[in-house]
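Issue: copy button drops trailing tokens. Both records pasted manually instead:
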Amino acid sequence: MLFVKTEKLKKGMRLARPIYNKDGVLLYERSSKLTAQGIQSIHTFGLIGLFILEPAEPVPPMTQEDILFERFQTMTVFALSEELNKLKDSKRGPKLQVIVNNILRRYGHLDKSINFIQNLRSKEDHVYKHALNTAILCAMITHVLNIKLEEQMDTVMAALVHDVGMLSLPKTVSEKEENNDAEREMIASYKTAGFELIGRVFSAEPNIKRICVQSQKMMDNFKVGVEDKRFRPVRGAQVLTVAETYDTMTAMHLNGAPVSEVAALKHLLNHPEIYMPEIVDALIESVNILVPGVSVELNTGDKAIVIRNNEENVLRPMVLGFKDNNIMDLAEKSYSDLEVVDIMKTMDNRCIIDTKTLREHGINVPELKEAEIHTGIAEEGTEVEEYIPGQFF
């Protein structure tokens, strides 16, 4: 499965994720092949990109729980967008608490892990979808940690509203792939203004603002390498920091492709100074990461498929090597030198030879100027390039 930005989509590519409208009605099923009209519709939707199946890749299994999870995301995010825009205008809509209750009812009492499916995002809704997914993760983590209900509700609410300041950020800044120092300072000021707004609207529940502010301070300190031993963030802030980071890393976003769940988990585990180990463990217990059927890359360069997960150490499952059909239990000492580097990014083992590589080896290849892509409804006669299997983009 590959992540492809909208401007790189081609006719014939197959969808790995379904596309729903705001009412939860299915518009495009998985494995549907993109048409010129479909690509123009996706441009109109403003989607950042799509998850695409490779030519020989089968459609991954999807349980009824997975379908309900995606529908819940799709339908809830539109209600959340209305409530967050009310909050932006200093009004607390009654549905915000209903959304918290719905999240906790569905995902705040689970005794099993779920497939945490990342939803498709656009420039217009990525703040809302990030808030919702972060809140769902917070609900599951706080349940595993056995946090009392009042604190659990405050943490989930904080996750829903923590980015409200970003809704007022000018699009010229929010939609840029990279920001300069002045723009980063502007973003920080809008976040701070958002926290002050949260404090006013939730004046009777001061812990919500406290969670948001302390979580942001944790991440700011981490970015500049500052360790304040006197700083004691509340547990809700620690949970929000883990959940927000995991969603940010594994979701599609404006300034790059998402990373795998394994890469995100390794980042969390490698920095216990900001991501509390017991909270990361609760995340691991909440979501499926390396389960049977997942194809992985090993540090030897070999490829393998997970045939049994490891509940003690999720990153050391039992795998079957593709090269020699050898079964390797990475939990055993005899395989201590082996480790999973990442989930396989592609199932296509052909060598990728692009024009840049050819030029580096002294082969003269003409450099073609890319055409400017205009989004919107296609005019009559508009053509979309067709996808040819094996042709890389």
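Record 2 (pasted manually too):
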Amino acid sequence: MLKKSLWSSFATDPEKYPKLNKDIAVDVAIIGGGITGITTAQALTERGYTVAVLEARSVGHGTTGHSTGNLYIIIDELLSSLKSKYDKDVVIRVIESRKAALEKIEENVEKFGIDCDFSRQPLFLYEDVNNMKILEEIKAAKEINLAFTELSEDFPFEQDNGIRFDHQAQFNPLLYVLGLAASLDKEKCSIYENTAVRSVEEQKDRVLVNTSEAIVAAKYAVHATHTPKGLELQYHTTLGSYREYGVAAKLESTSYPQGIFWGYYNEQKYSIRSYSRGDENYLIAVGSPHKVGQAENNQKHVEDLVAFIQEQFIVGQITHTWGGQNYKPADLLPFIGRKTKNSREFIATGFSTDGLIYGALSANIIADKIEDKFNRFEDLYEAARHQPTKSAKKFVKENVNVAGEFLKDLSFKGDDKDLMEIPPGEAAIITRNGEKVAVYREPNGEYKIVSALCTHMACMVHWNNVEESWDCPCHGSRFDTSGEVIEGPAYNALPKKIIE
């Protein structure tokens, strides 16, 4: 079984981009090379701006390459959740904005001939017991005149209630982003991989983006990193960082029903779809969400997902497992636009699990703002907004959770272990000379030892035994076993430590 996303198995010969090793100047520096960053680069270069995309690892292989590849106009939290916080007009405009983004993705696929298996598909919502969720969704859809059909008895999966939304879509998200990146005007856009940003300094008439080896001077900077980098507490305190898992299993034929299936089994949501490329046919299931760094045993989440897919469907070998991260906004809408009222920095965050659509939508809103052009959806997602009546309950819940994790770890003394007691392939937090250190013992017996305190806000990291990473339970930063940042708001690596 491969511990990587299914999509990465089909990106066998991606274009390689250089590492930035000299100072440059451009109109816009974009931090992050996923669907948000690459689509923003496309939108800006088409308007004549020069752009540098700075990707810490490989283009498309972050959150985008670990998503479901589903494209839909409703939201992950469902229409009924939106309707509980906003009036009818806002809900309709959210749907319209997401529809426009889906159409932009389809336009790009056709315009640039991107081979990413894009196809229009229906979205099915169903539940195995009558817990009223689908009935609430039917009511919300009727109130905004969104077309749907109720499921008939010949629906292929057992269900108590269900509805269908037609003309949604699916694709291979990694192949899409790689294809879009390859199509960009190379005279106006430079892409750099393995180029981690260490800090961003906003000045009166420019922004300096500092990487490990160079400085990018730009008129504007865009944080296309799924969550803003640095100590942007006005955003981090309104976002909950969550992780969930995906598994792929071989299918014996292409006769499996086509479409996006959101099933609620005992009130647990699973996202299910099939995928075929060439002679390879797969079933994909995504679920088992939990707060980043707060799972007692990450492996158990994957095992539960594998058990679910094997119990519910006739599948062959489990071929891939992977994890994906999302940031849920307290008021259900993402933050897209200027960091503050007159800032030269732009952010796009709080996408929940709807990042493919919101990534494409962000690109157009941000490009319009940089061009000083009105965008009809900008007010919906204004990054500097403050909506206490719509976010208070979840805001309090998330921050109590963060405070609880911080206080709990303050009292944790570290495992009372010698290095030799840590089995090969496993990890532990231990205390040496009054300092907590994170120790990973490689299968060959060698040790990787780093500080156990996250470089974002000094919360203690926790071991993720599925993805072999150190995950911060406070704001979702993740680090590899060498301490390098994988994702999240942290700029800097966990410092390496030596134990005598």
